[in-house]
Amino acid sequence: MTPFQWNFPTKLTYGEGRISEAGAIAKEYGKKAMIATYARGGFLDPIIDKVESSLKAAGIDFVTFTGIEPNPRSQTIDKAIEQFKAEGCDMVIALGGGSVIDGSKYIAATSFSGGGCWDYVVLGDRKPREYTGAYPIISIPTVSASGSECNAGGVLTNSETKEKSFSRSEYRFPKVAIVDPDLLTSLPMGVTKDSCVDIFSHLIEHYLSSHAESEFADRITEAMILTLKDNFDLIINNLEDKEVRGQLALCSIFGWSGIQALGRTGCIPMHSVEMPLSAIYDLPHGRGMTIVIPPYLELMADTLPHRWAKLARRCFGVTESDDLKAAKMLSGKVVEWLKSTDSYLTLSDVNIPSDQIEKMADDVVRMFKGPEPDTTPGPRPVTKAEIVKIFEMCK
Ligand SMILES: [Fe+2]
C-alpha cells in the first residue's frame, strides 16, 4: 500500500422526501443562498419549486441561478459568481447532476477566493491558482454518476478554447448532501445508462492504473462493481424503483470518494482520453466513457495484466488461470455487458467524425501531460499514437 490521507467530511442525508429539509439544513450554514441548477423548462421544475418552498419556510433568503449546462461552461459559472457576489449570497445549494454540483463548487470557492473559475483548473504546465477558502455548499443530486455530491473534485469546460479540465480542493467538499431517491426516479433512460457507465469508469480507473496493491480497496471496489451491475439490470427495467436508485446513489458516492482507492491511488487515463469527446462535441460525459472504455481495456491489457485479470475474474466471470490471457478477455466481457444493457456505442453512433482523431489525441497529451513528451499519465505513459489508436478502435 502507498501512504494516504482520506476524509469524508460531507454529512450524507438519505431518504425519500428529505428534500423538504433543505431549508432547515441551509439555516445552519448561512442567510442567503444561491440555488444553482439547470435551465427551467424541464423535468426538474417541480423539484426547484420544492427547494425554493423549503427555503422560504425556513426563512432563508435566496436567488436561483438557472442555466448551468451539462459539461458546465466556465463562462456561465463566471456569470453565476458575479451574481452571487452582487446579491450578497453566503452559500450555494447545488441542485442537479454532477455538472451542476461541479459548477457550484467553482461558484462557492471562486466567489470566496477571487478571480475567474478557469484560473483554478489544471491545464498542462500551468500552475493553477489556489483557493483561500469557499462558501458552504449543500448538494442535492438529481443524478447518480459523478460522486460530486460528496467529493472535492470538479470539472469545467471552456467553451471558447474547447478545453475541459478539472481541479480538486478540500475547501469544496459539500457540507451536506441531501440524497432523496424521489428526485432520482425522474431521470430518463439515456441519462440513467450514461450514469451507470460513468460510475463503472470511476470504479475501474484506479483499480487498473495503480502499481501498488491494496486488497481492501480491490474488494470494496469489486463489491461496488457487482452492486452496480445488478442494479443497472434492474433500473433499466423500472426507472422508478426507488430502492434501486438508492443503491446506485451509494455506488456513485463511494465509487468516487477515494475509499475505492485507499492505499493504491493511480491515475485516470480513461477520463483523459474521453475529455475531447465531451469538450469539443458536448457529448454527455458518461456516454463518452462508454465509447472509450472497451478499446482502452483492449489496448492496455498487457500493461498490468495481473490487475486486468483480477477484475475479469472477480467481476466478469472469467475463469482463465493465465493472467495475460485473462487480461485480454476483459474488454470483450465489458462489451458483452454493455451490449446486454443496450449501452454499447461507437464514435459513429454519436456522429463524431473520424478526421478529428489526430486533434483530439493532441488535446489529451497537451492538457494532461505525461512524464514523457506526447504522452498522458496511465499505468505506463500512454502515447499520443496509442490514443489515436484507441479513437480508431472506437469508430
Ligand atoms: Fe467520470
Automatic annotation (TrEMBL):
Residues 9-181 form the Alcohol dehydrogenase iron-type/glycerol dehydrogenase GldA domain. Keywords: Oxidoreductase. One of its GO terms (molecular function) is metal ion binding. Gene3D superfamilies: 3.40.50.1970, Dehydroquinate synthase-like - alpha domain. The keyword Phosphoprotein does not apply. The keyword Nucleotide-binding does not apply. GO terms for cellular component: cytosol. InterPro entries: ADH_Fe/GldA, ADH_Fe_C, BDH-like. Residues 194-392 form the Fe-containing alcohol dehydrogenase-like C-terminal domain. Belongs to the iron-containing alcohol dehydrogenase family. This is Alcohol dehydrogenase YqhD (Iron-dependent ADH family).
